[in-house]
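Can you give me the bound-state structure? Components:
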Amino acid sequence: MSKIKKTKIADLLKSEEFGKEVLVQGWVRTKRGNKQVVFITMNDGSGMNNIQIVADPAMFSEELLKSVTTGSSLSVYGTIAQSQGSGQTVEVMATEIIVHGLADADKYPLQPKKHSLEFLREIAHLRFRTNTFGAIARIRHNMIFAVHSFFNSKGFYNIHTPIITASDCEGAGEMFRVSTLNPKNPPLNEDGSVDWKQDFFARETSLTVSGQLEGELAAMAMSEIYTFGPTFRAENSNTTRHLAEFWMIEPEMAFYELEDNMNLAEEFLKYLIKYALDHCADDLRFLSDRLIEEERNKPQSERSMELIEKLKFVLDNDFARITYTEAVDILMKSKPQKEGKFQYQVKGFGTDLQSEHERYLVEKHFKKPVILTDYPKEIKSFYMKQNDDGLTVRAMDILFPGIGEIIGGSQREENLEKLETRMDELGMEKESLWWYLDTRRFGTVPHAGFGLGFERLMLFVTGMGNIRDVIPFPRTPKTAEF
Ligand code: ATP
Ligand code: MN
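Here's the bound-state model for the whole set.
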């Protein structure tokens, strides 16, 4: 057999070069047939659709055809033919089949039937081979690409901020310690506490919860930057929206005020959603059908909007923009508040809004994404710009249907004195953040930024219900096997 270059199945399915010799490589999804003809469907991850291989049993040994089972891996040489069957236009008439890896049909965990998402999480090493996770992996890739493409087109620079850090950025959550000390017998100070000076970095270090503070340093010279890195939070919240390890996109812009920040965030989210619609049509269609099937037994009123319709809806509508104080007013007057239906009652100004409140605003009241601004300073981080009212800060959270908070951001306090006063009020140690405060000492400017949780975006775009299902290897309390 002459050496032919392999063709990806996605490209092959679009090809109309009937009679051309090709090489297809991938994994078997199904095999069926009889003494006259055998049909093998294969997938190589390049797209949602499989290629059908047609093999004449007279041309292959019985043993070889027997070893072709669901999950086995093949190289198939053959010619492109117009398909006789319905649903596809192209198939391959096999001339040579090489089986690379057998897959014991009785033991292969993925049978050609519907498996629960929970079961698939337990076989994360094989779930890439399902239609659902293939679609999610491809959409994830497209969204990563779109993030870089958006910022690159706007002249933002991508900055790598550290993963190991000595600063608890904002008390954003519990941190994972990084240490090389022997946990059984750590060196101790005289008072019995651990002597971190003898640790690898000669100080206490952790995995980062956000790249923002370092991002601000870069923005104070490069003007417009973004980070896109892994973040780690040891919060023991076993929800469908929290991971212990997730990816975050954090742009930071010099000379931006809150309004500019909101405009950028809305444009960014719409760009990403449009990119998905333009580049992931097959995968979105599959996920949409999956969702409809899943919700078939729910009453009409509880079903979510069709996935593609929902994505278009967000594109076509301006996000609502209201202050936190206005939002609290709406919630206080709301039906679930009056009827005691909220798990956490809203207690007026100062209440830290829960996801049930956020979702009420988005799904019931405004029926579209909402940007909430000007939160009480007590429930937000020290670095947010203080409003003249002395009560609120220039924070903005973007709330999405089905998700709640997807973006958290703010204009930053650029005034050194105000920033230090706030840190004192909170009892923060200013010395260890000297490098951050220096940006306010030397050429400070108004600036702003935000953080988009990449997996929250993925939840929205794919319509999946659990954040564990939109990342290949989820890290959550008590799970990190693979
Ligand atoms: P939440 O209130 O939902 O826990 P947060 O206020 O802790 O969010 P930020 O610290 O503002 O969130 O982080 C910025 C963004 O990172 C959030 O808007 C969200 O999209 C995402 N995010 C935060 N925590 C997690 C997590 N544990 N897993 C996945 N994404 C997260
Ligand atoms: Mn949180």
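A couple of observations. The longest strand covers residues 21-33. The radius of gyration is 27 Å.
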